[in-house]
Amino acid sequence: MLRVGVIMGGDSLEREVSILTGNEFLRHMNRDKYLPVPIFIRRPKEILAYADEIDVALIALHGKNGEDGKVQALLEALEIPYSGSGIASSALCMDKTMSKMAMGGMGILTPPFAAVSKQDWEEGSWRSSTGSLVYPLIVKPNQGGSSMGITVVEDPGALEEGIRTAFGFDDRVLVEEFIQGTEITCSLLKGEVIPILKVSPTLRFFDYDSKYKETTGALTETVRDVPGEVMEEVQRIAQKIWKLFSLKNYARIDMMIRNKQVYVIEINTLPGMTPYSLLPKSASEGGYGFGEMLDKIIQDVWTGRATV
């Protein structure tokens, strides 16, 4: 029987979400095929204690020291196949600025942006680098997820405070134009696009509470009111990103559609798998229960272990 380690916890601000994801993995894992091994950690090196106890690792970590390639590098050194994308892919997708530059180089549209470093902040050069952007803007930590540290800025007078808030979460900040349109999320399982969902947040944007709390969550539905040619473009972009970033097993790509133009907002190599998360909802729309989806992921990891 395959011993499947579920690595959860971590030391990022997304620890709570990680534990929710890990518990869902454990709850839905087929005990007739797999022996689940819960692995709660604070630091990646704690995985070493379980190296001889697992055959496969399901990474339920989110944020720094989870999605940024560090845990992936450790597992590769231990020769333990793991879920999600590889070291370089994880690191690149976690870095919002670098991933936007990579997509731009391949002709994939993302919102206009400016990157702000601590040096830019101290010298005041951020004012000129962000000066050409059209309001409203959205200010984000360059690395991190679950919409933590994000501010929507309606006018120049609020930008400084938005950047200061984001610096509380990372030492680099991304300032980009806030695209207002139809928000969609495109999930992929084993490289295949599964039903695309339209996301309608009850608040200004899809924030932490919208993602993980049932009472304040966003409304989601399969996309029905977007022209067919635009949906074809969405799928084409998703497949292009899967190949460009060498994604594996599963991923979620968030996009906005405005005036029939598709903007990629973010690539998630280890998207949340909580009861309220978007990828499981997409899988359900495609006829996959959580257990069946999880089985596909585990089998894809195991059969692809020769590439680890």
Description:
This protein is α+β, with helices and mostly antiparallel strands and 308 residues long. Helix content is 33%, strand content 24%. It has helices spanning 15-28, 70-77, 87-94, 96-105, 118-123, 126-129, 159-167, 208-212, 228-244, 278-285, 290-303, and strands spanning 2-9, 34-41, 56-59, 113-117, 137-141, 151-153, 172-177, 182-189, 192-193, 197-200, 219-222, 250-258, 261-268. Strands 8, 9, 10, 11, 12 and 13 form a 6-stranded antiparallel β-sheet that branches. The longest helix is centred in the C-terminal third of the chain and has 17 residues, at 228-244. The radius of gyration is 19 Å and the shape is globular. The mean pLDDT is 91. This is D-alanine--D-alanine ligase.
Task: Give the gist of this structure.
Mg(2+) 1 binds at residues 254, 266. The chain is α+β, with helices and mostly antiparallel strands and 308 residues long. The protein is built from eleven helices and 13 strands.
Structural topology:
Elements (H helix, E strand, L loop, with lengths): L1 E8 L5 H14 L5 E8 L14 E4 L10 H8 L9 H8 L1 H10 L7 E5 H6 L2 H4 L7 E5 L9 E3 L5 H9 L4 E6 L4 E8 L2 E2 L3 E4 L7 H5 L6 E4 L5 H17 L5 E9 L2 E8 L9 H8 L4 H14 L5
